[in-house]
Amino acid sequence: MIPVLDVKAGLEAENEIYAEEVHRFCKDRGLFLINLMGSPGAGKTSLLTEILDHLGADHSFGVLEADVDSDVDARTVAAHGAKVVQLHTNGSCHMDARMTLEGLKALEPDLPQIVILENVGNLVCPAEFDVGANLKLMILSVPEGDDKPLKYPLMFTVSECLVISKMDTAPIFDFDVDRCLSHVRALGNQMPCFPLSVKTGEGSDEFLAWLKEVVA
Amino acid sequence: MIPVLDVKAGLEAENEIYAEEVHRFCKDRGLFLINLMGSPGAGKTSLLTEILDHLGADHSFGVLEADVDSDVDARTVAAHGAKVVQLHTNGSCHMDARMTLEGLKALEPDLPQIVILENVGNLVCPAEFDVGANLKLMILSVPEGDDKPLKYPLMFTVSECLVISKMDTAPIFDFDVDRCLSHVRALGNQMPCFPLSVKTGEGSDEFLAWLKEVVA
Question: Predicted ipTM?
Answer without folding.
Answer: 0.85
